[in-house]
Amino acid sequence: MRYLLIDCDPGHDDAMAILTACAHPEELKILGITTVGGNQTLKRVTENAKNILRFLCADIPLASGQEGPLVRRLQAAPEAHGDSGMDGFDFGTGDYPLASEHAVTFLYEKIMACPEKVTIAALAPLTNLALLLKVFPEVKEKISCISMMGGGISHGNCTELTEFNIYVDPEAAQIVFTSGIPIVMAGLDVTEKAAVTAEEIESLKTKGRISRMAGELLTFYHESGKQFGFVDSPIHDLCAVAYLLEPGMFRGERWHVEVSTEDGPARGLTYADKRLAGNEQKNVLVLEDVDRDRFAGLFIEALERLDASACSR
Ligand code: BDR
Ligand code: CA
After folding, report:
1. Contact at 8 Å (CB) between 15 and 217?
2. Is 77 near ligand 1, meaning CB less than 6 Å away?
3. Half-sphere exposure of 131 toward its Cβ, with a 13 Å CA cutoff?
4. Does 13 sit in the ligand 1 pocket, CB within 6 Å?
5. Per-residue pLDDT tens for 40-62?
6. What's the CATH number of domain 2-309, 3.40.50.200, 3.90.370.10, 3.30.70.330, 3.90.245.10?
7. Separation of CA 120 and ligand 2 centre (Å)
8. Is this prediction's pTM over 0.90?
9. What is the tens place of the pLDDT at every residue in 105-153?
10. CB-ligand 1 contact for 80 (6 Å cutoff)
């Protein structure tokens, strides 16, 4: 059993990662979910997190954090996720409780109160986590691993070199990458292979309540993905959670990775120094490949589990 905190900016793929994590309570004890400005404003992504958790009848504490990056202004991604940050499904009206603490204090308290080390799934710009590590460095001892979606060694999506989550807040990413905490990086090298097909999305819409909701959201996401040349839909953020559930479906290598914060085309680039021999210098397990069918199977089965839960009936 892992104790898990999820930092996110839902976001279609964030939502799929949350759903999949929630479907595995015997393996992942979710201590809380925190939001950060990224795919959309903090207000909108927090609203989206509330909608997902309410729809699931979940009982997971939720806290909102930073509105935008440490240094620069937020650049959102409405072209991929729509104006709401998670277009495609009408969740109706209703609310979900929000913790009164800021996400950074919330994370600190959850981590320090946990009887064991915690794992963090980081699915968004790393602003909240960078602040957590700067303000409360003592948490480092209690974090076993950060499984994150971000970056990419071979190419970018936000610019030719850089991936969205890192590009939005490179200063935060560099703080996290150099923190000494073990990092598993699901960058574009692997996440673009972790895609579901149009047929798989369509079939979700014939199933239970949770699968249908996911199918509707992914229909929007699939359509918007076409403008970027995608035929199938990469569920980027789900890789960070899927790795925790079934690491054997991934292949990766340990390298020394840092983040460029310089102005210019490399700002936000995650670069790997593959020469460094010493294991202690290899701060990141860079995921490179995934068994696509196992990945899709894990996801579809997770939704079926949720369909069968009491709230869905
Ligand atoms: C990442 O950027 C966001 O749009 C997604 O939610 C994911 O976290 C992919 O580059
Ligand atoms: Ca995200």
Report:
1. yes
2. yes
3. 20
4. yes
5. 999 999 999 999 999 999 999 99
6. 3.90.245.10
7. 14
8. yes
9. 999 999 999 999 999 999 999 999 999 999 999 999 999 999 999 999 9
10. yes
